[in-house]
Amino acid sequence: MFIGIDVGTSTVKAAAFDRSGAELGVEARQIALAMRGGAVEQDMNEVYGAVVAVLDALTDRLPGPVELAGLTGQGDGVWLVDGAGRPVRAAVSWMDGRAHGLVDQWLADGTFEAVYRRTGGAVFPGSPGPLLAWLDRHEPAALDAASAALYCKDMVFGRLTGAPPGTDVSDASMPFLDPRTRAYDNGVVELLGLTHRRGLLAPVGDPITTAAARGEGLPARTRLANGPYDLPACALGAGVTEPGDGLLIVGTCLASLVATTDLDLSGEPAGLHIATDRPGHRLRAMPAMVGTAALDWVLSTTGVAHGEVDALLAATPPGAHGVRVLPYFAPSGERAPFVAPGLRAELTGVSLESTRGDLVRATCEGIGYAARHCLEAAGLTGTLAVCGGGTRSPAWTRLLADVLGRPLRVVEGEVGARGAVLAAAERFGVPLDTARWTRPTAVVEPDPARADLYAEGYAAHLSRLVRARARTGNRPGRS
Fold first, then answer.
1. What is the CB neighbour count within 10 angstroms for residue 34?
2. Residue 54 phi/psi, 5° resolution?
3. pTM, whole model, 2 decimals?
């Protein structure tokens, strides 16, 4: 048996697989996000407790022993721990917006672009660089008390195994890792004013660090691998490893990933280049802040249940009777395929005749346009896989195929957990049939007529976006 652990932003999951890749069982627990005035935080003890709970529940009903486990989780944010691996303060989420003023300053003075040209990572308010700089200014005592500034999965790995603080090349890719040397770029640390905090950056395990579980959640001595984090883990779980192939994750974060062997740091600074365990191979990532959270807000505001979405999409024509949504609802603005901390959502074309179906469809279309923008910027040329909670809606998946104008390889189940297991198996030298593990469950083809209509809608979306960015002082082409 193999176990994959996926510590998401709102849900912690553990999934068990047999040697063929068949999913044997899943356990999940919800975890809270505390949001207030642009601050978004999580209780580390609650997160870790949820990990132990799902592992206990899953291992109790497995028919055989656990051969190995892989760990993945949400990226970015800052998870401060002391020398014993215990929380110094609440974790600061990747969704946090408090550092937007710093990012605005760095956009204006050239720091933002200088960092991107060195590392291929476009800092955004919820990434570790701005968050550490903000904490250094406003909560220096928390940094003084910390032994390490970790990422989510690193905190969990340390507590499950007792291993010293560490991370992997994928999490370290934002924003301090030099993609050429696969080591921290001290020049970037200096650019962000954090040289005196350099000691908080966890050592990078390259390849992925492994250790044995202590017996909490996982059986004692279970082999556990720490990483990669959720975006590259999903790419592995979806079989996206060949240059040009891409993955769209329709989740809280709308993440677009394209496998590549190139390193092009020209063009508008945006997204990041995620290092993988294979030197020279990376993922060009455009992890947009827009995602299912935008649709959730619209559903909550309009009183529509998730179970009603498919029927409303089926009953409402493409174009949503002229209603249009720029779906940038995150309090920290947008980070891909451009960085605009002040960007906010816009609804246009709404009248007293507009229906709930119009608002829901327009939001789904807007998210689809944002996905197309990200995938184009990431350099998609090959096949496209899709996974995530949004794909549970057949109607929305068909809509996405039409908006993107290409077939979608739908990969169901716990894709991140699956990728974490594949990464762990590679690290431990356990041979698995990767093609079988990553086989799509369906292929959704676009409707040609609707694809043509949405090509026009996409062009209009880009024009509206240019105007919206200009109003926030963030114009395309400016860094």
1. 11
2. -70, -35
3. 0.90
